[in-house]
Design a protein that fits this description.
Number of strands of chain A: 33
Oligomer: heterotrimer
Strand content of chain C: under 5%
Shape of chain A: globular
Mean pLDDT of chain C: 93
Low-confidence stretches of chain C: 297-307
Distance between the termini of chain C: 26 Å
Shape of chain C: globular
Largest sheet of chain A: 6 strands, mixed
Chains: A alpha+beta, B alpha+beta, C mainly alpha
Low-confidence stretches of chain A: 854-863
Number of helices of chain C: 11
Mean pLDDT of chain A: 94
Structural class of chain C: mainly alpha
Helix content of chain A: 10-25%
Order of helices and strands of chain C: HHHHHHHHHHH
Number of strands of chain C: 0
Radius of gyration of chain C: 21 Å
């Protein structure tokens, strides 16, 4: 679901095809029939942005028919834990949970606590991967092993999803009841003791105002069916392209340090205060060791200068004080609050939502540095942006000074890629870069050399972190050709024991006393024994089923996370077919085909002593060793800022009134009311008259994202030479569109022209008497390259999920009009006219709460 | 006339072509049931063989913008959209695509599968043939319950009896030691006879170059012991390369597997050594009839008609000669006053 | 499904000039043997002119004209084009010698080199005439031994159509260029050729399967209809007028020449058209497959009924 794996991940899809050859049944749920659908055993058409309703329906089906893997659920998930009396569900509050503050549009999640435990109130993005600490999670949580207590998670879950009946799924998603039940039956029949099912998602799930909750919903189904931590099961998050996984592990994200440690916040005076926000005194799991991870990171950053006396240089880390994400920054650029911008490996002028806003932002800088393989629109916007045509950007007056630096491609430099399974694979340099093209390491090394010279004599305390930075990689070349050896960078990420000078073997070797340095604790072990483990390439026919000697997988070369769950409570595999790791009573340790994801000698029946904390507090049946309570979370008491359970909310722009609750959209979504970011208001605020259709955009196999790597290449450009819009024959008739002729797609923000592609792969949906048409465009084109076209991302607005600030770019409302779009001033006039007709202003669509009776919405029946 | 009792030609074509100890005959087995339409084969082929770009125009034939095999495209992924039942006629789309296709040059040849406007009856839909614009439109939908999208990577068939090779007057086309059929680029004078000699519409003459071009099954890579570029690049092993004997067995197994799974329409194409070209060096597993994919269902190499043709030519030449002699003889004895 | 032939109008034109060269060579040799000097002279020159045109057309249609000599690298019986190349190579020198000999100015004719040349040319010319029937008819094989339905399906009749067409054109040429008194063989040749062509052409159409559609529609049909009318008119003129009237002979000759050329262009274009619609490829093949499936395998290609 939410994935076009065959088109966007063709290389990974070979394994799906292999599984299919081995008898696996492939089901594809997607708004459009793609090349993935063509290869699937069954295809289910769904309305874009209704995945939670669908998955909620699956949960409903599982729970109302007692189809869950009860032994697994009772022992390995938090199903038995009781929830605080003060908790109120969406059932009670017409689509809201308890703790909602309409003034800030956010929740205080403390009412979602477990009975007997207390979470630390934290700001979003304050606690990294671990989530807010839960005091009392080790042993203090009240529970009912019979799962009968109305306040236990299992019953809360049942109640929460009681409305998600097959009839409701049909009304919300447009999936016929019988088709939906077939998927439910296939999924449940293929799960349990002997069988497992895998769930695959991609950005079709994440790029929504309910992005994080889409994945939560999938996780709940998989936990209920016992498909987590077991071979053949799991949830596969297919990343956007090569090494996106690596770029979140060792992040390019403003709120994270390497290894999902949170970035310090303004006001955190010292290391102790930081760690205190991260760990509770009475909780389980490996986040207890976060001090060792952070101190080792600081030692890697600042070397000798980091000592116990100065908190290992904690004070030199930058602080955040709110949202510093890419969209926030872009809007700050428009508002003149940002003067310089460095863009690498990205083409926001084409590839980011609301392209016009992106380009207006770029045009309002003092300087802009773009490093890319070819001249892309982000570097050339000042002369070829659509805004030049409308007069909004004047090339002769655009004040941004643009520096374009040619970059070496991935084959022209050595380095590592981390793929979606967390596997780090080393790649060698295959060709020397041509001309002035340079590697990223070269660029940063040379930039650093020049900055160091600049700040060498500075007395400004702001420059102290720069002066203290221990940038001492082994280098190749000299002078302006000098650049770090990428293998040494990987070695330093792995970590070094400073007392011996040798690499550490894994993150359990890391210490909080300053005797180890480590660039990312999760990657500890990738250079164990001073060997680049990521470069291992022993073929499949020379090793076992999980190929541990191909590349290296974090953490600890473990191929399957939480694999303790592949064995039953007694440590025996659930089934012979699905055995992975098990307890060996003779050796007194966990063993198996994979590296066990559990304290190696903690036996299955282990009961920790009272007062134990961290890893020592894990019971023998706590497979989820990074969680504060050791369990898989059906109910998320903390860490997810928009609710402990996934709830169907309509997309921000939707032609459909939420059939489930009075609450229309996600009440915590981040809206940005700005003149250059107008929204089409959804019901009950607006009606779908002017923009009646659902728009979704995605990729084609033949191009690469914003096109920088494919539009310039004849052999790729010829395969998909022109922007097109896919419409169903029904919609074509409705709007008088002719195959291959021109049409323009209009939203509240932009008009984009494309060739019409009429195809049966698109089809209208029937919901409750309402017909919903969906249209789709690929988004690879822009004004430069061998093949050019309008920028599809101009159609999308910026509205974000509150958990991770990802934009909702997979669904919006639109109309499709015959012919080419108007140009210049006429285009601006057309959009203004449409906005007037739809009553759109800079603030429409930004009313977050619609739950409860409202004047524009007739009173709803409360069940 | 083809003689039905004629024994099938031996498959070890290289030995027949005069190689003493040839390596085993190699080929492709393209299993379309696992093709995901990624076109990596097209790109890998073009990169390795340094083929030029073949037109930056949108064809509107589903996801296919290559159109057909040709001088500049030696792999071609066909996309066939088979309609869901009861969704009206596709005529307006076909009509829209047709002029565009006819105007889109591809490696010297126009896209040739357009139903002619002059055709008195457009029987295409009745035949289960791919139409242009949206291939598969109107194809046997009554027998299916849902929309179907077929993909197939087409390539030169490297026939056991190769029409192109037989008619080549210069010897530029030759049989390699691997049993494949390759054009020698330093010999070809561009007479174009092979283009019409091929019953599959594979080979073509490249404009501005003048020479005939087609898949070489990466002869240079084979010489170096490498897998052909397309097979190497195929992510799902839809394109398999290997000795023909092995591939034939594999194809048989896969077909049995699919039949076992209830895919009754699955069929092998080019597997039969008794067919009109003595079997292919590159076989296909198809999920529908060949013509649905734009492949001729049962072509016969033109060479098989040669004895019949020459007999008739001989008779005609004799008649011609007799007429000539007769004209003078009759005149000598005739009355011409 | 099929590639349209890459051959251009030049090949269609060559079908005509090749036939003309062959037929006029036969007439010239006959005239030589029967001592009809005007007919001999005009026909050798005509044959040579047609041959030169043929070579220019053939080489001009190559993708790499400078490599035309590669045709002589091999002799391949499986390739009608190779056979044709060698036939033309055998045919050409004699025609050339004979034509050059005809061009020797009258005042030098009695010199010994001219006499030697004449003797040589005579022998070579007769040899060329012996290969002429092959030159005049092999082009049918050239077209028919292809996958082009419009050519392959008419392989039984096409040699006779082309032979007739060549004879009619050459006879027409003889009638046009030689005085009627000497042109009787040309008239007979033309009459027999035209009759044969008309008959074979009709038979061809009658026996065609689905591909008849391309022969019966559009420019192809118009050309072939015009060819038939002109040939028939030329035939009538040959029989009724040409003996008495020089003008009638010339008109008949022109009609026959034009008719022959139109025939060649018609057939050529029919083949090209037949590759453009996959029905002509698929339907006969599918019929054959279905017939085979019904257990009535009749191994012929192309779905023609009742062979």
């Amino acid at each position: 679901m939410g994935s076009n794996m065959a088109e966007a991940h063709p290389v990974a899809f070979q394994w799906v095809m292999e599984a299919k050859k081995n008898g696996a049944r492939v089901v594809h749920v997607d708004p459009r029939f793609t090349r993935t659908s063509a290869l699937a055993d069954s295809y289910v058409r769904i309305r874009a942005g209704t995945d939670i309703a669908f998955l909620g329906g699956v949960v409903h089906h599982v729970l109302s028919n007692d189809l869950d893997f009860r032994e697994y659920v009772a022992a390995y998930t938090n199903a038995a834990f009781l929830v605080n009396e003060g908790f109120a569900d969406t059932e009670d509050l017409d689509g809201l949970f308890s703790g909602y503050d309409p003034a800030t549009g956010s929740y205080a999640s403390t009412t979602w606590d477990y009975e007997g435990a207390r979470q630390r109130a934290t700001a979003p993005m304050e606690t990294g991967m671990g989530g807010p600490p839960i005091e009392g999670a080790a042993g203090g949580i009240a529970q009912d092993p019979t799962l009968e207590d109305p306040r236990c998670v299992f019953q809360v879950l049942k109640r929460h999803f009681s409305r998600y009946t097959p009839e409701m799924v049909e009304r919300v998603c447009g999936v016929p009841r019988e088709e939906f039940l077939q998927v439910c039956r296939a999924w449940t029949a293929n799960s349990g003791r002997e069988r497992t099912s895998a769930l695959v998602y991609s950005v079709g799930w994440t790029q929504h105002t309910v992005g994080a909750q889409n994945i939560r919903a999938g996780a709940i189904v998989q936990l209920l069916l016992g498909n987590i931590g077991r071979p053949g099961g799991g949830i596969y998050a297919l990343r956007g392209h090569a090494n996106i996984q690596g770029s979140t592990d060792i992040p390019t994200l403003f709120d994270l340090l390497p290894g999902y440690l949170p970035m310090p916040r303004a006001g955190q005076a010292d290391l102790a205060a930081y760690l205190d926000r991260l760990r509770a005194r009475t909780q389980k799991g490996y986040w207890e060791e976060a001090d060792a991870y952070l101190v080792s990171l600081l030692k890697e950053y600042f070397g000798e200068a980091a000592t116990a006396d100065n908190d290992f240089g904690f004070d030199w880390l930058p602080r955040i004080d709110g949202d510093h994400g890419t969209y926030r920054t872009t809007m700050d650029m428009v508002d003149g609050r940002v003067s310089g911008y460095l863009v690498m490996g990205q083409n926001p002028a084409v590839g980011s939502a609301n392209g016009r806003l992106q380009r207006l932002a770029l045009a309002n800088l003092d300087w802009l540095v773009v490093r890319d393989l070819t001249m892309i629109e982000t570097a050339s916007f000042w002369q070829d942006a659509p805004e030049v045509e409308t007069g909004e950007i004047a090339p002769e007056r655009c004040r941004t000074e643009v520096f374009f630096l040619p970059a070496a491609s991935h084959v022209e430099k050595a380095g590592s890629f981390t793929q979606t399974q967390r596997m780090v694979q080393w790649r060698e340099k295959a060709a020397e870069p041509v001309g002035d093209q340079r590697s990223d390491l070269w660029f940063f090394h040379q930039l650093w050399r020049r900055i160091r010279e600049r700040v060498a004599d500075s007395t400004d305390p702001r420059d102290e972190p720069l002066q203290r930075l221990a940038w001492d990689y082994r280098t190749e070349g000299t002078g302006d050709d000098e650049e770090p050896d990428p293998e040494d960078v990987l070695r330093r990420i792995n970590g070094v024991d400073l007392t011996t000078g040798r690499t550490v073997d894994g993150f359990t070797d890391l210490r909080a006393d300053g005797t180890t340095a480590c660039g990312c604790w999760q990657y500890s072990g990738v250079y164990a024994d001073e060997v680049n483990q990521a470069a291992r390439r022993k073929p499949h026919d020379q090793q076992g089923p999980y190929d541990p000697e191909w590349g290296w997988t974090w953490p600890a070369n473990r191929r399957l996370l939480y694999n303790r769950a592949s064995a039953d409570l007694d440590g025996r595999p659930w089934s012979e077919r699905k055995k992975l790791v098990w307890w060996d009573p003779d050796q007194g340790r966990w063993t198996g085909h994979d590296v066990p994801d559990f304290p190696p000698t903690t036996p299955p029946g282990h009961e920790p002593p009272a007062g134990a904390r961290g890893p020592a507090a894990l019971r023998g049946d706590d497979p989820f060793i990074m969680q504060a309570d050791g369990k898989g979370w059906l109910f998320a008491p903390t860490g997810v800022v928009d609710g402990p359970l996934p709830t169907h909310y309509e997309p921000h722009e939707s032609p459909v009134r939420n059939p489930l609750y009075g609450q229309q959209g996600n009440p915590t979504r981040r809206v940005y009311p700005r003149p250059e970011n107008p929204y089409d208001p959804s019901p009950p605020e607006g009606d779908p008259g002017v923009f009646p259709f659902v728009l979704t955009a995605a990729r084609l196999t033949e191009h690469h994202t914003a096109g920088g790597m494919s539009r310039q290449l004849p052999h790729l450009a010829e395969l998909q030479p022109e922007l097109f819009v896919e419409v169903s024959p029904e919609l074509a008739r409705l709007r008088g569109l002719t195959h291959l002729w021109w049409a323009h797609v209009v939203t509240a923000r932009a008009a984009v022209e494309a060739r019409v592609h009429v195809t049966d792969r698109m089809a209208p949906l029937q919901l409750d008497g309402q017909v919903v048409h969906q249209v789709w465009l690929p988004y690879h084109w822009g004004p430069t390259g061998l093949v050019t076209g309008d920028v599809v991302n101009d159609l999308l607005g910026i509205v974000a999920d509150a958990n991770v600030l990802i934009q909702e770019s997979k669904v919006a409302t639109c109309d499709v009009l015959r012919g080419r779009r108007p140009r210049g001033a006429e285009l601006t006039a057309l959009l203004a006219r449409l906005r007037t007709r739809a009553g759109i202003t800079a603030t429409t669509g930004t009313t977050l709460v619609t739950a409860g009776p409202s004047p524009t919405d007739p009173p709803r029946e409360t069940p | 006339m083809t003689d039905p009792d004629r024994p099938p030609p031996p498959l070890d074509v290289a030995r027949r072509a005069g190689y003493d100890e040839p390596p085993p005959r190699v080929g492709f087995f393209t299993d379309t049931s696992v093709c995901i339409g990624c076109k990596a084969c097209e790109v890998a082929c073009k990169e390795w063989n340094a083929l030029p770009e073949d037109g930056l125009d949108l064809l509107g034939m589903s996801m296919d913008n290559t159109g057909m095999l040709g001088a500049n495209s030696w792999r071609h992924v066909a996309f066939v959209e088979q309609r869901r039942p009861g969704t009206g006629g596709p005529d307006e789309q076909t009509a829209a695509v047709e002029p565009r296709l006819r105007a889109a040059p591809r490696g010297g040849s126009e896209l040739g599968t357009t139903p002619l406007p002059t055709s008195p009856k457009r029987a295409v839909a009745d035949l289960g043939m791919p139409t242009v614009g949206r291939p598969g439109d109107g194809t046997g939908a009554e027998t299916r319950t849902d929309f179907r999208w077929l993909m197939e990577s087409d390539v030169c068939k490297h026939c056991t009896e190769a029409g192109c090779l037989d008619v080549c007057p210069t010897g530029a086309l030759f049989r390699t030691e691997f049993g494949t059929v390759v054009v020698q680029q330093d010999i070809c004078d561009g007479c174009g006879y092979c283009v019409s000699g091929c019953p599959y519409g594979v080979i073509d003459r490249r404009p501005h170059d003048g020479r005939a071009q087609k898949c070489t099954l990466c002869y240079d890579r084979l010489k170096g012991g490498l897998t052909p570029a397309c097979a190497k690049a195929c992510p799902t092993e839809s394109i398999q390369f290997g000795p023909l004997d092995v591939l034939r067995e594999r194809a048989d197994r896969r077909l049995a597997e699919l039949h076992g799974q209830g895919v009754a329409e699955a069929q092998l194409y080019g597997r039969d050594p008794d067919d009109g070209v003595g079997g292919h060096g590159s076989m296909f597993l198809l999920l529908d009839r060949p013509e649905v994919y734009g492949l001729p269902p049962a072509p016969v190499v033109p060479t098989r008609s040669a004895p019949q043709i020459w007999r008739r030519v001989g008779a005609a030449a004799a008649a011609f000669a007799l007429a000539g002699i007769g004209a003078f003889v009759s005149s000598a004895f005739g009355d011409d006053r | 499904m099929l590639k349209a032939p890459v051959w251009e109008w030049k090949i269609a034109a060559y079908l005509f000039t090749g036939g003309l060269a062959a037929g006029t060579a036969v007439l010239a040799a006959g005239a030589d043997l029967t001592r009809a000097p005007h007919l001999r002279r005009s026909c050798w020159l005509g044959s040579f002119g047609a041959l030169l045109a043929s070579v220019v057309l053939l080489v001009g249609d190559l993708g790499r004209p400078e490599r035309f000599h590669h045709m002589l690298r091999v002799a391949k019986p499986t390739s009608p084009m190779s056979v044709g190349t060698w036939l033309l190579s055998a045919f050409g020198p004699g025609v050339g010698a004979a034509a050059v000999s005809e061009l020797v100015p009258a005042r030098w004719r009695s010199t010994w080199p001219a006499r030697l040349l004449r003797g040589l040319a005579r022998a070579l010319g007769l040899a060329s005439a012996a290969t002429a029937p092959g030159v005049g008819t092999y082009t049918a094989a050239l077209l028919s031994q292809t996958a082009v339905p419009g050519w392959a399906e008419v392989r039984e009749e096409l040699p006779f159509v082309f032979a007739g067409s060549a004879a009619a054109a050459s006879g027409g040429f003889g009638m046009l260029t030689a005085p009627p008194a000497e042109a009787r063989p040309a008239r007979v040749f033309a009459a027999v050729g035209a009759s044969g062509e008309l008959l074979a052409s009709r038979l061809m159409e009658h026996r065609m399967g689905l591909v008849r559609e391309v022969y019966e529609h559009g420019p192809v049909a118009r050309r072939r209809r015009a060819s038939e009318v002109l040939t028939a008119a030329g035939l009538a003129g040959t029989v009724l007028l040409a003996r008495r009237s020089r003008a009638g002979a010339a008109a008949s000759g022109i009609a026959l020449l034009t008719g022959s050329a139109l025939q060649r262009f018609g057939v050529f274009e029919a083949g090209v058209e037949s590759t453009r619609d996959p029905r002509y490829t698929v339907v006969p093949q599918r019929e054959r497959l279905d017939a085979a499936a019904r257990g009535t395998l009749d191994g012929h290609q192309g779905g023609r009924p009742g062979r």
